[in-house]
Specification:
Length: 388
């Protein structure tokens, strides 16, 4: 069976206020053309179909167009909701849409109820694990302290129990939206650390033939059978060096992977990060290759130059982001507070503040109190997003 694995469309998202809708529509066209040209048997979309819980109308229309075009091809499609999606909104009409071969899996209670497709070698069971927010689903899965590993582990127990009850030789594919240990994040994935450690070990998915992951935006191989497709487009400058693609997976008659090919996605415009003094950036011949790219520029001038954005735009008309990071000696008192905090998470910053004020860092109990406080704030943000 040939399975096309994609995820993280983020329909409706912009790149530094530049609409990506046209590029997203081009990707959908490329997806449909690939399904047709490569004789794909099933498409899987592993979450974050939309960029936010209440997407703009144009994004909804593009999603509707994508579903109609895939249904017209007669190729089954399985989709799950991600942490950016509203599971309830995305899942509206799921049972009705099933009849058209479009299978939406957004309800955590349905993790153990697969979409079963067949080829000449028998059945393949597709299990959809939508994004499982620990604070919201721990009761459903009966876990006392609902961290990410606990709730995904409980969901996979349901998958394995259902698979064990099926005929011998039934092959299996799991769609999941999660941060799996060993994956490399970028700047454009929303934080999912609420409920404790965000990452889960890949071993939690043991017992199935292929795991189609979503959430991280870089295409990557966690193991032969556990892979991220990555997003089809770059949504932050941290993805400037990404190769955007989909996985074309061939599942053999005994569940073995007989093929795993990366299918490149269209690139609307390359991204580039440039850094240096303004006069150097404007004259450096090595930067000619970036003149038509989307640009993130960081100026290192000791004194902020006049009209830097306008001057940059003369050479780099698609400059989207401008930052200042003056070259100064480390002991310079003017080194910014932001620089001192760079690379530190909320927990570390809070612990440093306690140390600064009191003269001694927090003990283990106090660190737990701080961690619980941050988790409570993040959980409250998630609940408000879900309620929108």
């Amino acid at each position: 069976m040939r399975i096309l694995h994609t995820s993280d469309w983020h329909l409706g998202r912009a790149l530094h206020r530049v609409s990506m809708l046209g590029a997203q529509a081009e990707f959908i066209g490329h997806l449909v053309a690939t399904v047709r040209a490569r004789a794909v048997d099933a498409v899987v979309v592993s979450g974050d179909v939309y960029d936010r819980a209440v997407p703009p109308l144009a994004a909804v229309e593009l999603y509707d167009d994508a579903l109609h075009r895939l249904a017209d091809l007669g190729v089954p499609t399985v989709l799950i909701s991600g942490n950016h999606d509203s599971a309830r909104r995305l899942g509206v009409g799921a049972r009705l849409i099933d009849r058209a071969g479009i299978h939406l899996r957004t309800d955590p209670a349905g993790c153990g109820q697969p979409v079963v497709l067949a080829d000449t070698h028998g059945d393949v069971a597709f299990y959809g694990l939508p994004y499982l927010e620990p604070a919201l689903v721990k009761d459903e899965f009966g876990v006392e302290r609902g961290g990410h590993e606990a709730v995904i582990g409980a969901a996979m127990d349901r998958v394995r129990a259902d698979l064990a009850a099926r005929a011998d030789g039934t092959r299996s594919v799991v769609l999941a939206h999660a941060f799996v240990t060993g994956g490399a994040p970028s700047d454009s994935e929303r934080d999912i650390t609420v409920g404790g450690v965000a990452s889960v070990p890949s071993g939690v998915f043991d017992g199935v033939d292929y795991v189609a992951l979503g959430h991280l935006h870089g295409s990557q191989v966690i193991s032969e059978r556990v892979r991220y497709s990555g997003s089809p487009l770059a949504y932050s400058f941290s993805e400037a060096d990404h190769r955007k693609s989909m996985w074309l997976i061939e599942l053999g008659p005994a569940g073995e992977l007989t093929g795993a090919e990366r299918i490149d996605c269209p690139v609307p415009r390359p991204l580039a990060r440039i850094r240096g003094r303004l006069d150097v950036l404007l004259d450096d011949p090595d930067l000619t290759r970036h003149e038509q790219a989307w640009i993130e520029a960081t100026l290192t001038d000791a004194v902020r130059p006049d009209e830097p954005m306008a001057r940059l735009a003369e050479r780099f008309p698609h400059t989207l982001s401008l930052a200042f990071d003056p070259d100064r000696a480390p002991e310079d008192p003017d080194v910014s507070y932001a620089q001192r905090l760079k690379g530190r998470d909320d927990q570390q910053i809070a612990e440093d503040f306690v140390t600064h004020v009191r003269g001694a860092g927090p003990d283990a109990r106090e660190r737990d109190v701080l961690r619980d406080a941050f988790d409570a704030v993040r959980a409250d943000d998630v609940l408000r997003e879900v309620a929108r």
